[in-house]
Amino acid sequence: MIKKLLSVLLVGLMSLSIVACSPKNTTTTAGSVKDGTYTSTTAGHNGELTVEVIVKDGKIESVKVTEHAETPVVSDLAISDVPAKIVETQSLNVDTVSGATVSSKAILTAVEECLKEAGFDVESLKTVSVTKEKAEDVTLDADVIVVGAGGAGLAAAVTANQEGASVIVIEKMPKIGGNTILSGGALNAVDEGSETAKENKDSVELHFTQTYEGGDKKGDPELVRTLVENAWDGVEWLQSLGMEFKPGTFTVLGGLWPRAHKPVDPVGTGFFKTYQNYVDKNENIEILLNTTAEELIVKDGEVVGVVAKGETGNTVTLNAKNAVVIATGGFGQNVEMRQEYNTLWKDLGENVKSTNHPGATGDGITLAKAVDAELVGMEYIQMLPMGDPKTGSLSGNIEKGVENRIFVNKDGNRFVDEGARRDVMTSALMEQKDAQMWVVLDSHDYPTGDEINNFNESLNQLIAEGRAFKGETLEDLAKEINVDAANLTKAVEEFNKAVKGEAADPFGRTLFKDPIDQGPYYAALRIPTVHHTMGGVKINKDAQVINTKGEVVKGLYAAGEVTGGIHGANRLGGNALADILVFGRIAGKNAAADK
Ligand code: ADP
Fold first, then answer.
1. What is the pLDDT, as a whole number, of residue 25?
2. Is the pTM of this model over 0.90?
C-alpha cells in the first residue's frame, strides 16, 4: 500500500513536471516581459490539457486551450470562460468554474507557467483586484418564467416553448446542468410490453410497486403513478429532440431492477446538449445565467413573476404572463437545512460530504415557503454508500451496474446485500470500520481497463491517480488495498456460489450476472455521502404547488428535486431523472396553458 502511494506520488510529480512552458518567437519588450507565443501542458481532469498564451506589447493578448480530454458540457464553461477572464482582467485572479474545478485549475496552472516564462510577476497577477461595474436594473416579460436550468427546469422550459409560450429560464450558476449533469445518467422507464421489458420481467406496475414500497409507502400514490406511467413517454420525447440512448437497460445502485436507460453521451451531458440545441434553434426561449431568484412576485393571490439578482448585483425583474415554474433542485449542500430537517441519520453536519453541486442549497423551498407552500417529507434525506473519500462526489465510482460488483469492509468481508435500497446499504456501511468500504469487481465490465466508468473516467486513469487499485489475483488486490486476503477470497467465493445458484447468498442478494472470477481485479474506496433530498414543495399531479391550506397556489408550478411527496422515505436509483423529466414536462405544459 505504501509502495503504491509512493508510486502514485511519483506519477503525480511527473505529471506536474510536464507543466513546462515552451516559448516560440519571443521578442523582448519594456520591462522584463517578453512578447511571444507560449504553450504549456498540464494534467486536467481526464488527461493532458494544453494552453497557448500570446503576449503582445507586454500584455496578455490571448489565451486558448488548444488540446484537452475534458468531459464535454461539464468542462465547456471552464474551457471558454477561464481563458477569456484571464485576458479580460489581465490577471490570474479568476474564479474556477464550479463543477469543473479541476479543469479550471489546470488551465490556470498552465497559463501561470506560460506567464512566468514570459517574465510576468505571477504572484502579483494572482492578487490583482478585479471589480465589476454594476449593470443596470432590468425588467423582462415572458409567458413562463422558469427558475433553475437543471434537468426539471429545462424539460419544463422546452415543453412550454413547444406549447407556444415565450420562456425565460434563470439560472444562478454560471452554467446550466445543476445536479442533473453530474448524475451517472440512469433513467428508469418501462416501455411496457417491449422485448426489453419482457426480458427483464418488468412492467409499469412493478415500477410503481417498487417505487412506492421502496419509499416505505410515504410517497403520494397518485404522484408515483404519474411518474411511472409517463416515464417512457418522456424518453421518447427526448429521442424526438435528438437525444440518444444506449440499447438495453441496467440496474443502477439502489435501483432494485434492470430498468435504467443510459444516454450515449457521458454523465448527464446528453440532456443538456439536447436542451441547449433546442434553445439555440428556437425563438422565444432564453436562459439567463448568473441570475439568482430571490423572491416571487404575488399580485391578488397569484404568482406573477420573480425578482432576481444579476451577476453584478443588479435587480432583474421577471414578469410572467402565464406562470412561474420553480425547478431549483434540492438542498443537499445546505448544511443548516440538512440539520434542521434530518431525522433519519445521526448527523448530517459539515463533516458529512455530498455528491451535489454547490448550487443545491434549497432556494426554491425558501421561495415557495414565503408564499405559504406546504412542504412534505423534508426529513427524508438520501445518503449513498458511494462517495469519493476526499470530496464525497460520485467521481471515482468504478461500479458499472449493480450485478457485477460487491462491497467489502476494511477487513475484506462483505456486510450487506449490494442490490438493496440505498438507505439500507448506507446504514450498513456506517456500522463498518471507519465507515468506509471497497467496491470490488473483476474484468467483466473492464476488459482492458481503458474503458470509462459511469462518470466518464477511465479505470486506468483512476489507478494512475491512486483512486482505484488493481491486482492480477484477488490476493494481489488484497495486498494493494491492505485487507485480509483470506477474507476477501472467501467473500468472493461465497458470492460466486450464489451467482451460480450453488448456494443462497449469505446476505440475501438476488441481483447477479457474472461471477467475480476474471482477473485483473479492481477496487475503489467509498464513503457515505448526502445525495438527494426527497422532501420539498408539495405538488399535485398537475405539478401545481399546494399551500398549507390544501389549496392550489395560483400561477405557481414546481418540478424536480425541489418537490416532495414522490419518492417517500427512500428514492430508487434511476427515478430522479424520470421524475425531472415527467414532472418537468407536466409543469411546462400546464404553465404554458395557465393564462
Ligand atoms: P433538478 O434535478 O430538480 O432539475 P438540478 O440540480 O439539476 O435539479 O437543477 C436545479 C438548478 O436550479 C441548478 O442549476 C441550480 O443552480 C439552480 N438554482 C438553484 N437555486 C436557484 C435560484 N435561486 N435562482 C436560479 N437558479 C437556481
1. 65
2. no
